[in-house]
Amino acid sequence: MKSSKLYAILQSLDKSELRQLDKFLHSPYLNDIKQKQKAYELFELLKKNLLSGGETPDKEDVFDKIFEGQNFSNAKMDKLMARLLKAVKRFIIYEYAGLEDQQLESLLIQARFYRQKNLHKFFQQSIRNLQTTQREVLRKDKQYYLNQYRIEQEISEYAGLYNSRKEDLNLPNTLKSLDEFYVTAKLEYANWIIAQNNLHVPLQIQESLQLLEQITPIIESDFCTDRPVIEAYYYAYQLLKDKENEQIFTKLEKTIEQYSDAIPLEQLKALQTICRSFCIRKYNQGQEAYLQKGFDLYKAHLEGGYLYYQMGILPATVKNIVTFGMKLHEADWVLAFLQAHKNRIVGTEFPQGIYQFNLAHYHFMLGQYDKALDLLNDYPADTYYKIATRRLELKIYYELHSPLLESKIDSLKVYLFRISRHLLPDLPKEANNNFINLLRQIHNPQTMNNTKRIDKLQEKLLSKPHLERDWLMEKLEALKA
Question: Can you give the pTM of this predicted structure?
Answer without folding.
Answer: 0.75
